Amino acid sequence: MENALPATVFLVGAGPGDPELLTLRAARLIGGADVIVHDGLVSREILALAPDDADLISVAKQRSRHSMPQEAINALLVDLAREGRKVVRLKGGDPFIFGRGGEEVEACRAAGVPVEVVPGISAAIGAAAQAQLPLTHRDAASAVTFVAGQCKGLSEQDWSGLAGHGRTLVIYMGVATAADIADKLIADGVSPAMPVAVIENGTRADARILRTLLTDLGEMVARETVKSPALIVVGDVASHAIARDVLAAWTAQGETIG
């Protein structure tokens, strides 16, 4: 039977993968949850913080397809809260950066369900920190922009002015369209010699940091068989990222990076 007052739904940012990058509040909420509705990018180490008797419900998204449509996720959160359960909606990175958190907040509000958002370290912030890549730098960039690379009608998107000297462009979900992204940026006037960094599995033990030039981006992603999750950073700041061979050497020595 439904409670007279629904429980609060907590939209919690799980960060980019390393459990040590969780906020204290996020860790506390995960540890006290009755049910956790989580994305596919949430690491096993973070899910292991849940109580043994908590229900874990995966709504993982694969390319262009949810295992559960967004409308069904919204309804699930509302139904669980109305049952009086402690609901944590656990999302990779930050709930409000390409996480559809806004839609879920609106659905809870419309249903009269209390909702709270707990921010997390975004994938861009966490991955850049591991790569020692400053997204802004007094000598290289005074502006940074986040865009989604896996969007419909990529060629029709207006990215003019988002990349170039003095600016940093961070592209989420761009692995599958990396070659098209490079062509688009070059067509929009960005130099083919602009530095680019690709950070795969940022903050995790199997992270890779690859550097190249914009003109080689698509071929490098294919050549190195880069897999999602991965971020593409375009701009002069990419030249500050530690090289792949440095990362490998540190890992071989058992050092912790990040």
From TrEMBL:
EC no. given is: 2.1.1.107
Record-level GO BP terms: cobalamin biosynthetic process; methylation; siroheme biosynthetic process
For this UniProt record, the keywords arranged alphabetically read as follows: Cobalamin biosynthesis, Methyltransferase, Porphyrin biosynthesis, S-adenosyl-L-methionine, Transferase
SUPFAM superfamilies found in the cross-reference section? Tetrapyrrole methylase (SSF53790)
| Functional pathway | Porphyrin-containing compound metabolism; siroheme biosynthesis; precorrin-2 from uroporphyrinogen III: step 1/1; Cofactor biosynthesis; adenosylcobalamin biosynthesis; precorrin-2 from uroporphyrinogen III: step 1/1
The entry lists its GO molecular-function terms as: uroporphyrin-III C-methyltransferase activity
Any idea where the Tetrapyrrole methylase domain is?
8-217
Classification via NCBIfam families: cobA_cysG_Cterm, PRK06136.1
**Can you tell me which family this protein belongs to?**
Belongs to the precorrin methyltransferase family.
Q: What is this protein called?
A: uroporphyrinogen-III C-methyltransferase
